[in-house]
Amino acid sequence: MILSMTGFGRGVSASPAKNITIELKSLNSKQLDLSMRVPQYFREKEVEMRNKIAEVLLRGKVELSVLIENITAETNASINISVLKNYKEQIIKMAEELQIDCPTDWYATLLRLPDALKTESVQVGEEELQALWDALQEALKNMVEFRTHEGEKLEVFFREKIDNIRTLLAQTEPFEADRVPKIRARLEENLSKLGNIDYDKNRLEQELIFYIEKLDVNEEKLRLRSHMNYFIETLEGEFGQGKKLGFIAQEMGREINTLGSKSNNAEMQQLVVRMKDELEQIKEQVLNVL
Predict the structure, then answer these.
(1) For a surface tag, which of 15, 113, 154, 189 has the fewest beta carbons within 10 Å of its beta carbon?
(2) 145-191: pLDDT as tens digits
(3) Which whole-number Å values give the CA distances from 124 to 15, 43, 67, 191, in the listed order?
């Protein structure tokens, strides 16, 4: 079972005075990269929220936003009358000294000035706090469900690509059987063109055997099949195997590259190119695995 790092989750909860909505978005990342937009009202709970998210999501570029909607008409902001009165007196005095007119719209002028509104600090109530945790828990639950669904699609994709590589690898066998006689015939033909040159045929036979053994790809094929089996076994393990799958894909790439360099056959090299294409698609999507 694998989980994707791509996901979205929303949680909604309410207290008697407030509706609280939490949204989580996630993309792939090497570690947990969490950015949070939390209103000042809940700012003191930001560290605790971060810890709860880290315990569940583990990795990914995660964005969290908290929205608060007041249900009641109550507000902790009020007009700072004493400050506005002082502003007005100063404006009138300034107008007299500079011999200019006073503002015609006192309301708009005064309310735009600093500290026109005063806000009293309010302690977060137990009901609002419980609503926050309920919304966060629901958002995380929905995020995990989203990641699970995306992970299921990724698993189908990976199995399909591994099967394609297996098929392509099997298709190299007929060309591999014809490859050695062709190489031997080509070398002997080139020697015959040199004319009547005396050479040690036993030594030539030894060199041919040594050269052909260097082109043998059985070990590469065996290791590649082993890596593909291990890739599938890892898919079926516990979640959190994204980095491990990436390492296995790298090892598969090494064997495919060596197979291509040893093939010395146009048809085999074409199949190797197609295997590389399938593997590159695997590597791209492995980056999304948790």
Answers:
(1) 189
(2) 999 999 999 999 999 999 999 999 999 888 776 766 777 777 767 76
(3) 11, 10, 15, 92
Query: What is the value of pTM for the model shown?
Result: 0.72
Mention every residue, 6+ apart, whose C-beta is less than 8 A from residue 71: 14, 16, 17, 18, 19
Q: Of 249, 246, 265, give the one whose Cα is nearest residue 59.
A: 246
Sign of CA dihedral 37, 40, 43, 45: negative
**CA 203, CA 221: separation in Å to the nearest integer?**
30
